[in-house]
C-alpha cells in the first residue's frame, strides 16, 4: 500500500509475478474501475488477476481528472514521447514519474513483470491497445465480450501515457477499455466481469 499526497491509499491486490494486471481510475472523474474491481474482488477473492482498483484516490475524492498536485497521471509516465505541457487538465508534470501514483504503478510493473495489462477508463465506449499483435488480439477478445469497437488510435496525442510507456516502450500488451459512462455500474458488471474471467485463463 502507498499513500498519496493527501494521505489516501493506493492498494495492490493479489500481487504475483507474471500475472495479468488490471488498473482502475487513472483519472479521478472516471470512477467506474474502482467499483468494478472492488466488487469483483469481493465476489471472486481467489482470482489470479493482480488488481489496482484506484490509482488516483485523491482525484476520485475531488471528482477531478488530475491528482492532488494538478497532474494528469496518464501524461506523467517516463515514455519515449513524454514532453513538457501546459498546466491544464492534461498537464504531465514537471518531469516524468514526478507523481507518487505514477511511481507506484511503474514500480509495480517493474517488480512483477505482468504478462499483459488492462486499464479501465471512460467515457468513449471503445477498446484501445498499445503494443504488438498480442495486444491487438487481446483487444479483440475484450471487444467481443463487451460489444465495443476496437480503435488502435485514440484520436489525439497522449505524450507520457501509460500505454506508450508499458505497451510501446516496454513491449507489454496493454489494452485500454473505455467504458460507456452512460451505462449504469450494475449493467457494466456482467460484461466487465466476463472480461476479467477471460483474463484469468488467458
Q: Which regions contain 5 or more consecutive residues with pLDDT less than 50?
A: none
Proportion of beta-strand residues: 5-15%
Q: CATH top level?
A: Alpha Beta
Pattern of helices and strands: EEEHEHHEEHHEH
Count of the domains: 1
Helix content: 25-40%
Summed up, the helix count is: 6
Q: Could you name the CATH homologous superfamily?
A: Zn peptidases
Describe the sheet with the most strands.
5 strands, mixed
Mean pLDDT: 97
Summing up helix and strand content along with how strands pair, one would put the structural category as alpha/beta
Q: Tell me how many strands there are.
A: 7
Tell me which CATH architecture applies here.
3-Layer(aba) Sandwich
Strand order of the largest sheet: 4-3-5-7-6
Rg of Cα set: 15 Å
The separation of the N and C termini measures 27 Å
Overall 3D shape: globular
The CATH topology name reads: Aminopeptidase
Keywords:
202 residues, Aminopeptidase, 5-stranded mixed β-sheet, 6 helices
Explain this structure:
This protein is α/β, with parallel strands linked by helices. It has a single domain, classed as Aminopeptidase, CATH 3.40.630.10. Helices cover 34% and strands 13% of the residues. It contains 6 helices and 7 strands. The chain has helices at 32-43, 57-62, 100-112, 133-146, 162-169, 185-200, and strands spanning 2-3, 9-10, 21-24, 50-52, 117-121, 126-130, 174-178. The strands form 2 sheets. The chain has a 5-stranded mixed β-sheet. α1 links the parallel β3 (21-24) and β4. The protein is globular. The mean pLDDT is 97.
Amino acid at each position: 500500500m502507498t499513500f498519496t499526497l493527501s494521505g489516501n491509499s493506493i492498494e495492490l491486490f493479489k500481487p504475483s509475478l507474471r500475472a495479468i494486471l488490471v488498473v482502475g481510475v487513472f483519472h479521478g472523474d472516471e470512477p467506474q474501475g474502482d467499483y468494478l474491481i472492488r466488487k469483483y474482488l469481493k465476489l471472486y477473492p481467489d482470482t489470479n488477476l493482480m488488481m489496482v482498483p484506484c490509482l488516483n484516490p485523491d482525484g476520485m475524492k475531488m471528482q477531478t481528472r488530475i491528482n492532488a498536485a494538478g497532474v494528469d497521471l496518464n501524461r506523467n509516465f517516463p515514455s519515449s514521447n513524454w514532453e513538457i505541457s501546459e498546466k491544464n487538465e492534461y498537464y504531465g508534470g514537471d518531469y516524468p514519474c514526478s507523481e507518487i501514483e505514477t511511481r507506484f504503478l511503474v514500480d509495480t510493473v517493474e517488480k512483477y513483470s505482468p504478462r499483459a495489462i488492462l486499464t479501465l477508463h471512460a467515457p468513449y465506449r471503445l477498446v484501445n491497445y498499445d503494443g504488438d499483435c498480442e495486444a491487438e488480439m487481446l483487444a479483440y477478445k475484450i471487444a467481443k465480450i463487451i460489444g465495443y469497437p476496437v480503435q488502435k488510435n485514440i484520436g489525439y496525442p497522449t505524450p507520457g501515457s501509460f500505454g506508450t510507456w508499458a505497451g510501446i516502450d516496454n513491449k507489454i500488451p496493454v489494452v485500454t477499455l473505455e467504458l460507456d459512462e452512460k451505462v449504469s455500474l450494475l449493467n457494466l458488471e456482467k460484461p466487465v466481469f466476463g472480461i476479467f474471467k477471460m483474463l484469468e485463463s488467458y
